[in-house]
Structure formats: structure tokens, C-alpha cells
């Protein structure tokens, strides 16, 4: 907002809509100008806190009239700068829109406002015999998870946000409110707008409500952990498990560096070796059979120390170690930031991709454990970064470039679940070529003034 | 093509591209002007038979230059007029593009040309330890199945084309060739163009290649059939089964009229009552456990005659009866056409919706069995229609209108798997309201001259 008068005019209009839920407080603006990535923040000019879809629509209409950029914001757990404001503008914080609107146990669906977080929904559903499976680790909002097409540890069984959002309410760039999808389990009624908005990172409109698939709570859950002499043996175990159709719910890989970090951080004594963490869902006997089958596949591949955690306490301890992987990384170098990269390759290339990447990390003289949602071929190199060291940042950048190039050359993608944001716009072009022009054409048709989260996904905006 | 000279010019250009794979033969044109719906055909002016994506691109460029409509065609098994040519133009028959290009067993994916049919792919994969699950009944092409977002009997476990297409090659309205998605199991790289083209019925571009998810062949499959005193008991059995997370692979409902037809047609003696056909996939013991669990749920709801078919011969006999349901309907009135309607509702409303519809059918004095993919809440009223009887057509139309209205009022959709085509354009507006404007904006941006399958999905084109 270069012109001061326009800024005053906009503040006036926003205040007329939202009263005191409009702020230019510098701390609040700065807090909204960065996410959990390592980049320096870029703050919006104004932050607003709407309570309803209609208020979001009124805010968008006001911003559109004055051609001011709009950035939707949940809780700021994105990793590629999705919430940053490189062109200033109005940050639309949806965290007050945190109501669970409807739960339909029989139909296994629910409708929530976009600001409901994953844990909040989990808590809400706890006594209702149902659960929502997508778990990206962070306690992100469901609106934000949809916007970045998030997934996480149990996508191998339950899919990502792509498979688990049935419908959306979206405020478009001109303030119109549309509903996409619906409560039917499947539909062939016209274009799949739901999946166009899922993953669009706020560049096509602002998601204000979501209808989500739920799943019945399971009779039994059990977990297991197993270590391997070489990484390819762990990956081959996963490939065979999935080919056999064993419906494993989680299957996570931690490399030896990550296991060392986990041991140090959590005071554990796991072997410092490539390790699989697994979880099985189903009836008691199905879970037992699955664990047994995977155990024997693992044994054939030289897996050892297969530990099975049937009761909740053991299971929680095991997954706590997995979930603490990020903190364990950070503890390796106190005061440093984490930069989790994010590629995904066809699983037949995964061992090769990780092995080459491990060599590359070692040669780059960086501290960077590897952790992966291995059932999907998705893995993260968690670079522990001294952001004051420009040389180190440069080496990290180069490592990331080579990693993405490697993944693309193997038929993979530059991002499995973190999205494009500011960080991967060139890589998107590298990966999708002319298809990015098609994306840009759609963006232009729905947001001709380029006001919806400008600068994200596309290079030229 | 009103202007004769232009038609000659176009034929010349097409012949230069395809040689003798261009025809104006009236029989071939007529054959390409209708699908398996009951509507009178509308023939294209020219039919072409490209062999490659590049040839499709050249054909599209030629048609675009002369502003001639293009209609993609697989094998013509659509049901809502998707392949008809209300504005004439060039039918692009993709049936010669029937090569399986790549199968990756380890990654559980394959890439095929759009003209490969479902059964052809099934045959091709038979000895490779993998299978593609989506089965709409008809031996449709995979390109056509993607274009209409088809599904069928085992969507309840494996999803629809929406969940099972990983990537596409598409020829756009101006002849550009783009690739969407890829072989990674998941990706957050930009807009989900794959799912924009899946279900777009050829109105945004022509699908020429598809990368599909595959699944490992299962150790054991077993089937079961069970009849119920009242329909709601069958539906409640399904609801409980799904809530318990029992991964049933197929769960089909046939109403008493359909069962009577099946008995007559196939010389069987099933009880004339609402009946569930089920299938279980997994390990031997998992399948046994699933069947037992569902059997006891069914028993609690008064299900009787629970027959379990473990060996392949029994199983095939059972599913043959289900698959012959359509022919059984047709045999009820020799010489008549079938009009299968297609709605989908939240499963909690399914029994109510089917019961009201059954009453409506009886009052309309129509012959119309009901068969449903009940795990998804999707069902078809198969109206057996004397197309020479205008009064009967009118009654059938009115029945369909009321059925759709009923489904929408229950939070459902006007089509679960057949698509919009020519037949449901008004219903699409009724269902999705302003969101249809968003679809039209996208259509306009990618096909500004409205040449890609014009008249389908949208009213005003």
C-alpha cells in the first residue's frame, strides 16, 4: 500500500466490517509475516480477524476494490513461506473461525470452519467413535492443511488432504462465496473444484469451511520398530509390504543420523541404523496378523530388533520418539534453525535417492538427518542450519537444489507435502513445464488482479 | 460446419495428418453419434482415428484453426450423451491408442494410452501380480473412465478414478500437449490439474495418456450374499460395517424387483427381497474374519440366507448374477431400452431415499429395478423404457427429476458416476449454484472458442 490515503481508507472499511478485529500493531504484523520455515519474515500491513464467511467475503470485497493483496493465515505452520507478505497487504487470520459445525457419525463426515486445528478436531471427535486421519505433525489448521495439500505419517493408508476433503466453502477474489463438492461420497457432477482449491495455497480464494471424511475408530492399534543393516533393506521391506496389500497405517523411515539424534534427545538406546517405525490398524487379530507378516518380511531382509508395542503406553513412547525427531534434530545444534526439505519419488527409486542424498549431505559438511514417510516415497532432509552463516546457507541451498534435481530425474516431485510457496516456484516450472502455464491461466481467470496471496506458486507475479 | 468449403479444407488438413484414418462414412459417423444412453444420436461430420498424442495435437490444431467442434470418443459406453455431437464437428476416436506403455510393479503404477479398455488392462496385468481396481461394469476405455470420473462396484474400498489417476497427458484446445501429475504417490506441487481434467468430460482437453495406481494381487478373495426383510436393515448393516472399518471391497444392494429380474434371467432362486452382495479382499484369515464380522452384523439386522462363496467358481457365479443385473432388467421387457439413473446420497439417508423412490416408481407405473453401490450411497434406478411410448418417456423423465430433487434435498449429488453430459446440465446448476460459474470461467479460460466437446456440462454453450 504505497499510497497512505488508500491505506487509511481501507482501514476504515475494514473497521466498519470487523470493529476492533483490525490491527496494524507491529508485533502482530511481524508475527503474521513468517512461518516455520527458516526465511526472514515479510510482514503484512494490516491483520484482520474475521469470525464468519460473510465477514471474510466483506474483507475480500474491500481489499479487491482497492487492489490490495490478501494473505490467508491459519496458525503459521507452513514451511515454504506461504503466509509471508512480500507485497504487503492484508493478512486474513482465520484462527477465530474455529468451530466444528457438524459431525455425522453414520456418514463418517464432518464440517468445520477453516481455523479448527488438527488436534482440536481430534479432541472434539474423541468420544464419538470416529477420527480424522491426516496428521502433518504440526498442529496446523484444517484450512491451512487443505491449502497446502498436507499429509503426514498415515497418508500411506488414509491418503492426503486430496483424498479426505469432500467439500469446501471458498471466498473468491471478488468476494463471491461458493461451495464446492458436498457430502456425497462420490460425484461426477462437473469439474472437481474441491481439488482445485486444495493445494492452491490461497492463490485462488480463501477456504473458510471444509467438509472432511472421517473413519470409524479402530478396535486395535499396534506399533512396531525394526532396524536394518542397510537402508535399501528397509525400503525393500516397505515395497513388499505394500505390494502384498498389507494395509499398514504408518510406515516411517529414520536414517542412522536421525536415530542417533533421537537416542540423544530422548535418552533411548535404539540401534544407530536405518529404522522403520510401523503402525497397524484394524481388528485385534488383523493387527496381529499384519505385524507378524511384516515382521517376517523384515526378517527376510535382515531386519533385527523387531519390537512390537501393543499397549497404548509402549505405543505412545515409540511414536513420541518419532514425533520428537524434529526437536531431536534441533537439539543437535542449539540455537540453529531447521530447514526440512521435502521430495517424493517412486518408491523403487527411494533407497537410491536417499543413499545419494546422504553422501551429498556428508560431502556438504552439513548436519542433516533424514526422515521419511517411506510408504509414499516421501522424505525430508532436516538441515540444521546456522542462519547467521552465509556459507552454510549457500551449501544448504545447493544441497536442496541437487536433491530436487535428483528427485525429478527419478520421476518424483519437488514437494510431497509442504507445497511451493515462495521457495519452490522455479522448481515447479522445472517439474511441470507447460502445465504451469495452464495453472497460471486458471489463476488469471479467477484472480485477474492477482490479489490472492500474490507471489506464491508463480514466479512472475 | 455450415460452410462447405471449410469442411473440404478441414478434411484436406486432417487427411494430410492421418492419411486414410479420416472418414465421413455415414455409418461410422452415426455409430459415433450416440452412447449407451437412450437418447437419439447426433452424429459428427467427420470421424478421425489418431495413433499418437502428436497426431491428436495436430488434429486439434487443425480444428481450432477452423473453429470446428471436437468430441473425444473411446468406445461409446457413456450414458448421458457425452459423445454426442449436437453441433457436429470432428469426433476424435482414440480406440487405436490402446497400448499399455509401462507397468511398474514395485511402484504399483502403470501408464497407458487413453484407448486401452478396462478389460484389456486387466488381461495385461493378470500375470504381473498387480491389478487396477476401478470397474464401472462396461468395458470402457480408461480415457473415457477418467473423463467421466467413473467408478463402480469396488469404489467403497479403492476409490474412483479421482483417487486412482496419478497423472495425465492432455491435448489442450489450442493443440498444446501438457503432462499433469506424475509418478510420485503424492505431491503438493501446484494446482491439481489431474483432478481438473478427470471428470471434465472432454470439455477442457483430450486425455491421451494416463498414469494409474495399481494394487498388489490379493492372497484371498471371498464373496457373500445375504437377504433382508426390509431395505433399511440392509443399509444399516452396511453403515455398521463401514463404521467398524471393515475394509469390504464391494458391497452392492439389489432391491426385490431387481432380485426377481435376476432370478428370472439367470434361473436362480434367491429370495425376492432386498439383498446385499459382498466381496472381501486380503489374506485368507483376514477375509474369513471380515466375512464373519459382516455376517454377524447382518444377522443382528435380521439378514438371512448368508451364503459365503470362497472358491472362484462360486464367486464368479454370484458376481455373474450381479453383473447380469442390467441384462436381467432388459429381459423384463424385450425390445425396450434401459435408462439407468444415477444419484448418490449420504449413506444415512440412503434407505429413506430408496424407499421413497420405490414408491414413486410404483406410482409412476414404470418397470424399474434398483441396484446400488451402497457403500458409497450411490444407486441406479434402471428404468426399462419403451422409447416409442412418449407418455412413458415423460413419466420416466418426471421420475428422474423427482429422484434428483430428492437426492439433492438429502445433501446428495445428481450423479455419482455417470457424469453430466447433455442430460444433467440443469441439475448441475441446481446442485452447485454459483460454483458452476467458476467452472464456466475455467472452461472459458482454457477453451475460449468453446470447441472442446461443446454443449456438454454447461447449458449455455
Q: What does it look like?
A:
- The structure is a homodimer of 461-residue chains.
- Chain A is of the alpha+beta class.
- Chain A has 4 domains: 4-93, Uridine Diphospho-n-acetylenolpyruvylglucosamine Reductase, domain 2, CATH 3.30.43.10; 100-216, Uridine Diphospho-n-acetylenolpyruvylglucosamine Reductase, domain 3, CATH 3.30.465; 220-326, 2-Layer Sandwich (Alpha-Beta Plaits), CATH 3.30.70; 332-425, Alpha-Beta Plaits, CATH 3.30.70.
- Chain A is 38% helix and 20% strand.
- Chain A is built from 17 helices and 19 strands.
- In chain A, the strands form 4 sheets. In chain A, strands 12, 13, 14, 15, 16, 17, 18 and 19 form an 8-stranded antiparallel sheet that branches. A 5-stranded antiparallel sheet of chain A has the order 5-6-10-8-9.
- The longest helix of chain A is centred in the C-terminal third of the chain and has 20 residues, at 390-409.
- Chain A is globular and about 70 Å long.
- Chain A starts with a helix and ends in a 15-residue tail after the last helix.
- The mean pLDDT of chain A is 94.
- Chains A and B meet through strand 9, helix 8, strand 11, helix 9 and helix 11 of A and strand 9, helix 8, strand 11, helix 9 and helix 11 of B.
